[in-house]
Write a structure and sequence with these properties.
Order of helices and strands: HHHEEHEEEEE
Number of strands: 7
Shape: globular
Radius of gyration: 16 Å
Length: 185
């Protein structure tokens, strides 16, 4: 039952936030994801300038934007791009479902900087699954308070997050899955 409620919440989020992601054809969708990824990457560089060197020296990196809604049970999802050192771009999607004493709505940006070529290849070829988070933050535009930014090390990658806008209060157990977007690759 809980999974059904989370899946329904996720479907509502995609329906409400899907405007830019519903481009007419494959090349338009790819261009939208590329543009969004570069804009997000620039925001991370402005917030933490030394990230630029880390990204340039990494065997690969990935950039994602997510949209979500949670009230005890909920979900988030979005898309992004994974970039190999050789310049190859892979279009990716992800979904997250969670449950716990959490209330949130908004969007979040993620930057994953891989430490080894094997970690990057594993991420692109097989995807990832992981979970567990908590905290409180609020943001709109460039104004925010609380834990709207974060970084953690997992699966041979640094994961940086930034709450673009919205409100998060509480914590939850989550499951997150990343995978290649079969329609865009």
């Amino acid at each position: 039952m809980t999974f059904r409620i989370a899946a329904a919440s996720l479907a509502l989020v995609f329906a409400a936030c899907g405007g830019a992601a519903l481009a007419a054809d494959k090349s338009e969708k790819q261009a939208e994801l590329q543009k969004a990824s570069m804009t997000t990457l620039d925001k991370f560089y402005q917030a933490k300038p030394d990230l630029k060197g880390d990204v340039e020296n990494a065997p690969g990196y990935a950039v994602f934007t997510s949209y979500g809604l949670t009230f005890l049970v909920g979900g988030a999802g979005g898309g992004g791009t994974a970039h190999a050192k050789d310049g190859k771009v892979t279009y990716m999607s992800f979904a997250q479902v969670g449950a716990g004493p959490k209330v949130s709505i908004g969007s979040q940006e993620m930057l994953l900087v891989f430490k080894t070529p094997q970690a990057y290849k594993r991420f692109v070829d097989k995807g990832w699954e992981f979970g567990g988070q908590g905290g409180a933050s609020a943001g709109a535009g460039s104004k925010k308070s609380g834990r709207g930014e974060g970084e953690q090390f997992t699966n041979d990658a640094m994961i940086y997050t930034y709450s673009k806008n919205g409100v998060v209060l509480g914590g939850e157990f989550t499951g997150t899955k990343f995978w290649k977007d079969k329609d865009l690759n």
